DNA sequence: ACCTGAACACCGTTCAAGT
DNA sequence: ACCTGAACACCGTTCAAGT
């Protein structure tokens, strides 16, 4: 056998990686997507360099925490597309997305940033999700349920903006569902 | 004369204060409302402690930079109220506000934060402006031009959210006017 | 009365030295 | 092959010492 399997990572490296992710989930839940990476390393009981070795950028860490969610939402869009009327499918997907978008403080900002930053590790998984949602939008527009001058980026930006509002203050967070329905209602043709 | 005038600040203190504001305007224009205060002091050629003496918090400095703008917008609302039909007056005011809201990166976030934080120095001047705008909203609703389930805070949050979107990426910034019109259009009764 | 900058407690990021 | 933590370049904030 001249072509061998690539060696599996060393056991200690695997343990460290898992430990970082476990702690990162907690710390990001507490502090948001801008959480202190030093704090993550400290609480995981590993050296700061080890964290950077496994996750060279903050986005690489976030991507690992969030890609499942993005993949699930992309699959959800595909499922809704084939089982629901266009307007329903879009409304339901946005509602599902919006619910998760407030999982972490700063998440709306992190997601919107990936649109522009193609070097971000979050770019690909987030783009796939956006494209799946874009098809739902297109269908809803073809059915006359959404005005024609809205594109997928507009919709994504607006939904994240409502998520951002909810991040800013508790009293605004309480209005989140209402603000979202105002915005979505407003996208219907007059 | 037993009750004397309060003494005018020392000449050097006055000069320092003016110099801080001058430099802060530049640095905030460059770096946004989260600009480094250390950088402001450095570029103003004054000690860091002097900056903190004149402006104990970041918001106190921002308030001094921004209160003129808020006062002008409050006055603008009053003027529009007495000269234009309700729907026009509101649309024009929001357009004026939105234009200024992108003057500095981070400004939308700073403004929205003052809603909740009553200890912020920006709270009072921003509240007065919001109340003036709230009257325009009420008039527009009474005239049937805006749906009834929108309050002043909703409108303020949404307009700032669109400003925030524009902060996130150049490509989104180019869609700002379109996104704003989408949102405002959407607030009309269906 | 006011100014100054060192001091303290934090960051993110890199990298030489270790195992 | 991987881990570690010191080192560097930044923050915000406070305060003892100066003029």
From TrEMBL, chains A, B:
Keywords: DNA-binding, Transcription, Transcription regulation
Top-level taxon of origin: Bacteria
Transmembrane segments: none
Gene3D superfamilies: Tetracycline Repressor, domain 2 (1.10.357.10)
Signal peptide: none
DNA-binding region(s), chain positions: 36-55
Entry annotated with the keyword S-adenosyl-L-methionine: no
Residue ranges of every copy of the HTH tetR-type domain listed in the record: 14-73
Protein name according to UniProt: TetR/AcrR family transcriptional regulator
Originating organism: Actinomadura luzonensis
């Amino acid at each position: 056998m001249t072509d061998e399997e690539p060696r599996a990572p060393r056991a200690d490296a695997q343990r460290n990686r898992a430990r970082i992710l476990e702690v990162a989930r907690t710390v990001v839940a507490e502090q948001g997507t801008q959480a202190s990476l030093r704090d993550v390393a400290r609480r995981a009981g590993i050296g700061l360099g080890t964290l950077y070795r496994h996750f060279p950028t903050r986005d690489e860490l976030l991507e690992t925490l969030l890609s499942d969610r993005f993949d699930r939402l992309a699959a959800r869009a595909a499922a809704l597309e084939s089982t629901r009327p266009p307007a329903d499918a879009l409304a339901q997907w946005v509602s599902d997305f919006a619910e998760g978008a407030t999982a972490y403080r700063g998440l709306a900002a992190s997601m919107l940033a990936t649109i522009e930053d193609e070097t971000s590790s979050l770019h690909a998984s987030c783009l796939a999700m956006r494209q799946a949602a874009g098809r739902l939008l297109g269908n809803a527009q073809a059915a006359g349920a959404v005005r024609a001058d809205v594109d997928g980026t507009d919709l994504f930006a607006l939904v994240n903006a409502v998520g951002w509002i909810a991040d800013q203050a508790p009293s605004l967070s309480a209005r989140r569902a209402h603000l979202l329905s105002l915005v979505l209602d407003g996208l219907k043709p007059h």
